[in-house]
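User: Can you help me understand a structure? I only have the sequence.
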Amino acid sequence: MESRYTPADIEKKWQQIWAEQGLDQTPPLTDETPKKFYALSMFPYPSGNLHMGHVRNYTITDVVARVRRMQGYQVLHPMGWDAFGLPAENAAIDRGVPPAKWTYQNIAQMREQLKELGLSYDWNREVATCSPDYYRWTQWIFLQFYKAGLAYQKEAAVNWDPIDQTVLANEQVDSEGRSWRSGALVERKLLRQWFLKITDYAEQLLSDLDKLPGWPERVKLMQANWIGKSTGAQVSFTTEGGDEIGVYTTRPDTLWGATFMVLSPEHPLVETLTTAGQAAAIAAYRAEAATMSDIDRTAENREKTGVWTGSNAINPVNGEPIPIWIADYVLMDYGTGAIMAVPAHDQRDFEFAKKFGLPIHVVVQPEGETLDAETMTEAFPHEGVMVHSGPLDGIPAGKGEGESVEAAIRWLEANGKGTGTTNYRLRDWLISRQRYWGVPIPMVYCDDCGAVSVSDDQLPVALPENIELTGRGASPLAKLEDWVNCECPSCGAPAKRETDTMDTFIDSSWYFLRYADAQNDQQVFEPEKANRWLPVDQYVGGIEHAILHLLYSRFFTKVLRDRGLLNFDEPFQRLLTQGMVQGLTYLNPNKGGKDKWVPSHLVNPDDPRDPETGEPLERLYATMSKSKGNGVAPAEVIQKYGADTARMFILFKAPPEKDLEWDDADVEGQSRFLNRVWRLVTGFIDAQGQPSRVDKINQAKIDQASLSKAEKDLRRAVHTAIKAVTEDIEGDYQFNTAVSELMKLSNALSDAKATDSPVYAEGMQTLVLLLAPFAPHIAEELWHQLGFSESVHHESWPACEAAALVADEITLVIQIMGKTRGTIQVPAGADKAALEQYAKDSDIAQRYLEGKTIKKVIVVPGKLVNFVAV
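Assistant: Let's start by predicting it. Here is the structure, written out as tokens:
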């Protein structure tokens, strides 16, 4: 028998055996399948190396999957790769490596790293979104959207590099609005692009959040805010030239206070409305706005800018002319691209009016107060009593019912001035990307037929491999004439392919469905299989995906349901957003006006100073990243301590939803614990005498009544551990306290005297079984050394025996004048009178009460007896 615990040998051995046995392959689901469980971690981008955030995510999900298998569930636990994206294209440009080659090399490297962690994935279901046998079905799903009228084209703004003459992703524009490669100031340019009509599902996406009790409230709130439902009125303002400008407002009760209008610089009416005298100023302003990002344009603390077009509109409720301005804080992609400005009741409008000397009219004020526009220092944005509002003067806000708003909507509808409506902040999803490394959009353009979809039997529209990536010029695919030129699928005439590729969020919006039938080359998935396995029972990933990925996945699920492929509404029943992994970080603050992170390996932790300047450094914990130089490579931890230790530390250090601070001392602590478990179990085996086999304990054969006190105490500790660990791995997954319970059980077994009792054998087997999901390699090795031939991971999860938890005796605390003087053992069923007598008769009471008179006795059943004496 191996006398020393050698993680490297044990882990490599069992990983190879598990792979040969197909231990983690997914069993088929049938009508007779008792229960299923689908455990899923958000799949990674194949950057080439795992980081500790990956390790934490995947370990959490792996423990859940392993426990469910032992509890008798049929478990689906797959892994894949979110493999399209800009980094591969950048690597091709910088290193001359084709994106496919770079990506598949990274996948191979990361797959091996995942296997080293002992993660119980069914690798037969592995998917890579860049593989043609996957993106064939991504294209097929796009065509389902197109056939349903949910995919369409319109013009939208992109980031344009005027030097390289190319479109840039948001990530390629720096904080100063310049191109990452050429350094040019980036412009905003309109291109015709593809969108998905997610707005058609806005109400479902919002209301169905109520169907997700297993999601964190924080995430549901973030999604609800992103969808942004509001009720208000659609109002049309007529320009003096007769053009109509539609405006949506949630505050129609303030219409009488609208003193100007603001259009987005990109609004289609700007050129029509601009007078000759304002043309130069308008043109200059639009050019400047085109260089700014939406985030910069709408920043709250930014000084307001704008230009008058020279034209006016008529306020529809009072007939007064109001000037029409353009300003960059109004976005064309939000609402109608036009707003009515009510400076007395909107802070942004107030600041704008103050800067440009525009009138401010108060039309709502608090009940019992009078607001003076001349003396206001800020807007009054709340509902209140309507004033200076013609027929609606004096109408109050009401008690939470928005009486003034509702009254205004009724008046607008009655007078043909507007209509009540519901609006959503959510915008349709722009999916076009002018990049190479993504899914080609399966559309063709014909002079006679227009836009025509590629037929299903011609999918996939494959990415060409003979391509040169420079980062300059038009979309890379547009340069390949042999690929672009094709026949129209409808009439056979010469046509051209769409040269945009899809947003990579498309790929991750349905991958969880493909896992249910990953090797199907005839269908996107067999609906029966998807409907059996889905929804995902437990989804685990970072909070950074709380909005877009999860929202898009919900959207895809609902569309495919409506296309007859799925019979459920939501893809993920339970969601766990794990906290970040933080490392000890060193900061030299305000170095040259900018904080400087100093890599931890360059710092003496006993006297942390900047190695370049000698200045003292601040110590803090921050999320691990390359830029901060505070990361810990999983491979180094595994090499030094083993995967099981890394897993145990990740699980023990903090609850899964909280941030985790990396601490080498705590890693050492988990390594020592596993070594103690090794010595404890192998010592027990040695004591049995080799090569005799330790029989599997059948609880029914242990007669609780016939056990000695020491055996009962030990068995209580064993079954207390079973109960506590089982409770900790349900609900909120408190793995940290579960590991603590394993430590308690290990200590109880180490301290036990009845080592030749069947209860001790039961305890040893229970310790290994409970440890198995957390530290799978050492548990498997010890289980086989105990003499069992089947995998510990195919054993049943231990069941708690209620009778074993019942204590025959309890520890009673003896207090004198409220101060604890000692403890005694008493029968568990003793009543108050008996407890008082046991306490009086004890040596402790006799010693401390000698020569004193007892005035009062306080008995807390099951806990203590307190004597008040003088």
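Now, to help you interpret it: The mean pLDDT is 91. Residues 542 and 577 are 5 Å apart (CA to CA). Let me know which part you'd like to focus on.
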